[in-house]
Amino acid sequence: MNFYLLSIIAFGVFVAILYLKSSEHQRMLYSQKYVRDKVSGTLGFDKFKEKADEMLQRKKELLALIHLDIDPYHDIVDIYGRETADNVLRILGTELNRRVVKGYLTTRQAGDKFFCLVPFTDEETHNNWFDGLSDMVESEVKRICNVSIKLRGDLYVCRVEDSLEDAMVKTVAQLNKKVFHKCCRSFFIINDFEFTTGYNSLSEEVCSALNNKEFTVYFQPQYNIYTNEIVGAEALLRWEHPTRGIILPEVLIPILEDNNQLSKFENFVFEEVCHFLALRLALGLQVFPISCNFSFEHFKDENFIDSLKEAADKHNVPHKLLVVELAERLLADDVNFAGMQVDELKNQGFKIAVDNFGAGYLSLRILSDISVDILKIDIDENVKLAEEYEVMVVPTLLFVKDGEIIHRESGFFSKDKFKSLIDAYLK
């Protein structure tokens, strides 16, 4: 009897230990995923947003949002690899944690984008802080990784009515408006009056800019890494302002949306793409599919598909050369409607691409019901998705059937192996 009771007690203790260990493990995972960014060591972005909004709502003091990034981060990734790039991020994160006043916040949003929420003092103090940070980080990166970098950033003094999202939009927009010399350190203090008046001025100019031929379509090529050939491209709209230089999408798109002009300019881009392809076809030059981005309001317009057909047919461009690119959330807003709209586009011969897949709106299982040709995933922007599907090496090739992963290949592999894998799973 006593032995039996002791056995039960022992078993109960054993289970309790297992439970405690499991709970500890879950807390550790939660901490890694939510509280701390595992690469930089800064506060996890979700936690940062939560705390930052609380601090902004309290309005006990004047706060400033600092936005930082690294030049040339993407070159470091491409040339030196992910490990070196992560070391650079880790150095900056460690130094920010050391230099940001206790009780205030720093985070890495994605890639090399860092944000700090700190008390605002004066411009000279913040400029000196940035210079000291830059000197330390740039020298440490050079010493450890033998890579030359420069920090760039800006500071926005938050207004009483600002949310964190408002402040982030302004810092990113302002930083992207600035003209940078390659590998030059730059830091800007944002004057909110300047921001507002500049934005309003651009809004007034946008309607006449098209007539003045200030808008240009650029083509970002897509390469096959095995053949070194261009296999496609993405059409990107840029505003070449006569005095302000190139206005980037982060600033341009909100202006077009506020003026109800976005659909008009998307049609302009699509028309230019059709003209470009028609010219190459007429000259007997190589052609490849080109993708064009479309907004939610435009996508759901009843004349959307007819307008694409009309433009393509006017230029005698085969529909298969035109890719309709949509943000993931467009499909998620109304999956049934999106599915029907996508099916009709496919019936007309157009290809479909989904941008920024993994932002949290759709799953692979849902997409198995929607006929999508291309999924675009930015691992820097979708760390959680990479972790979910255990993408630890780039490139990683996933074979998906009915929403389930049936095979995985990671790392670089030969053209022949790639072809054999494709052939095997397409049979």
Question: What does it look like?
Answer:
The protein is globular, with a radius of gyration of 25 Å. It has two domains: 36-190, 2-Layer Sandwich (Alpha-Beta Plaits); 201-388, TIM Barrel. The protein has helices at residues 2-35, 45-58, 73-80, 82-99, 123-145, 164-177, 192-209, 249-258, 262-282, 296-299, 304-314, 328-333, 335-347, 364-367, 383-388, 415-426; strands spanning 63-71, 105-110, 113-119, 150-157, 186-190, 215-224, 229-241, 245-247, 290-294, 322-327, 351-355, 374-375, 396-401, 404-410. Helix 6 (164-177) links the parallel strand 4 and strand 5 (186-190). The protein contains 16 helices and 14 strands. The protein starts with a helix and ends with a helix. 51% of the residues lie in helices and 22% in strands. Strands 6, 7, 8, 9, 10, 11 and 12 form a seven-stranded mixed beta sheet that branches. Helix 3 runs antiparallel to helix 4. With 427 residues, it is α/β, with parallel strands linked by helices.
Protein traits:
427 residues; alpha/beta; Alpha-Beta Plaits; TIM Barrel; 2 domains; five-stranded mixed beta sheet; disordered N terminus
Count of separate structural domains: 2
**Helical amount:** 40-55%
The quaternary state of the protein chains shown equals single chain
* Rg, Å, rounded: 25 Å
Q: What is the fourth-level CATH superfamily of the largest domain?
A: EAL domain
Tally of helical runs: 16
Distance between the termini: 64 Å
**Mean pLDDT figure:** 76
Large-scale geometry? globular
Give the helix/strand class.
alpha/beta
In the predicted model, the low-confidence regions spanning at least 5 consecutive residues are 1-33, 179-183
- Beta percentage is 15-25%
Sheet having the most strands = 7 strands, mixed
CATH fold group of the largest domain: TIM Barrel
